[in-house]
Amino acid sequence: MKIGIAADHAGQMLKATLVKHLRAKGVDVREYGPAPDPEDDYPIIARVLGDALQRGEIERGIFCCGSGIGPAVALSKMPGVRAAVVDNEWSARDGVTHVDINVITLGERVIGDELAKSVVDAYLGAKPEGGRHERRRKQIEALEPRPMSTADGASGMRRGI
Description:
This protein is α/β, with parallel strands linked by helices.
């Protein structure tokens, strides 16, 4: 499995810990994003990771920052990217088995190194389940933005003022 990992300035130490942990396990890890800079903007770095996922360069992603919240919001705006803030093993597994999350975001200020390693292992070890979860994943995909057509009633739409 090819894993992409990125971080802003607030997640660099956790990112380094996780890269070392994953490579020691033989995981193909690709690092994304610029060199650390206190003025970096996580939405831009998240976009780089999300683009790699959309292009199929990686199968799953990890983003490290201070809290995990901002990048999860930014990444989830991208079609086909399902990101979640995760701080425990159960949520990591459940997020994949039920929702098929393909990016986890971790807060370096929130989660310790050992727990982060365990969370990442749970995330990478999980597989999506079928049945009702597949049906729900399709419902989530249907929420992704798409161009409106006349079949959607676009011809009769008026702009609000």
